[in-house]
């Protein structure tokens, strides 16, 4: 990965990944791509958690990260979340990376790499692109990666083998 860091996840990161995984599992149950996210306060409290809703809403911006960030900002009454951590089951895409930067989130933790559309180290590395006028967030990658990736693999395998209607 072009942007891999050696940073280690904290106990709070692992706990927040539980919440993100629960959201991803619910997304899969709802027929959505199983991605979940949580925004975590410095105290370790989960401010907001969300899952993908693109298919059912239908909303092209209905990504788990955007919805969790939006909910955390509303809860706080401030668009700047510069003391929070975003925990997400899949490496954020370009759109989500832009929202992460706009919210000034200083730390991003994710599970599975997204080799097709990832923008935090696999295909692109927008969060740590020094040409952008934003603080560079710390990135912790691969937290419970296999579990996160398995949800996606199983979801898409079931879709490929489902009868066409």
Structural features, described:
The protein contains 4 helices and 5 strands, in the order αββαβαββα. It has a 5-stranded mixed β-sheet. With 165 residues, it is of the alpha/beta class. A hairpin with a 5-residue loop joins strand 1 and strand 2 (46-51).
Compressed to H and E, one letter per element, the order equals HEEHEHEEH
Report how far apart the termini are: 39 Å
Largest β sheet strand count, sense and barrel closure: 5 strands, mixed
Q: Ranges with pLDDT <50 over ≥5 residues? A: none
- What is the overall silhouette? globular
The overall pLDDT, averaged over residues, is 93
Number of strands: 5
Radius of gyration: 15 Å
Q: Helical stretch count?
A: 4
User: What structural category characterises the helix and strand content?
Assistant: alpha/beta
What percent of the residues sit in helical stretches (DSSP H or I)? 25-40%
Strand content: 15-25%
Strands across the major sheet, in which order?
A: 2-1-3-4-5
List keywords for this structure.
single chain, alpha/beta, 165 residues, 4 helices, five-stranded mixed sheet
Short précis:
The chain is α/β, with parallel strands linked by helices. Helices cover 35% and strands 16% of the residues.
List the helices and strands and how they pair.
Blueprint: H1 11-29, E1 36-40, E2 46-51, H2 64-76, E3 85-90, H3 94-102, E4 107-112, E5 138-140, H4 145-161
Parallel strand pairs: 3-4, 4-5
Antiparallel strand pairs: 1-2, 1-3
